[in-house]
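Our example copied in:
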Amino acid sequence: MGRTSRRAGEKLIALPRLIRVIAEERARGRRVVLTNGCFDLLHAGHLKLLESAAGLGDLLVVAINRDDSVRLLKGPARPVLPFEQRALLVAGLEVVDWVVGFDEATPLELIQAIRPSVLVKGGDWPAERMVGGEFVKSLGGRVVSLPLLHGHSTSRLVDRIRGGKRLKPATRAPDPKAWPPS
């Protein structure tokens, strides 16, 4: 399949079907890139991470924590948006090929099932601390920690909203060619 003009809902996939699709794609010589996260309140930092991740392979799979998993990680007030909305928003991005959900606190079982060629996280996760990183390396794959887009954090955004502080409007759009930031 790959990066085609599919509707967001068509990119949402259950793990058993995803495993079959990935096997077909690998048979064609395509490399699978996997990243994961909560993706609560999608922002420009998420977009830049996903665009960069997509450039590391042929097929970008995004694993998203389901709601109970987010609460375990972020506390009872999160997620702000339910899984279905978060998944649909991420799937709506052109660079994303597939979106799959997971319930566990970590994506280790999902990583072991998908067996990506490249495992990617944002720079707040050094490669040596990435869940599933050693497994991916044992398969001959790469583990990549991409730089974060400075000033973009869902947790900080949620704190600012809950604190009643006004968000500063962007003075200019970020330069899409200025990635990764120096």
Summary: The two ends are 34 Å apart (CA to CA).
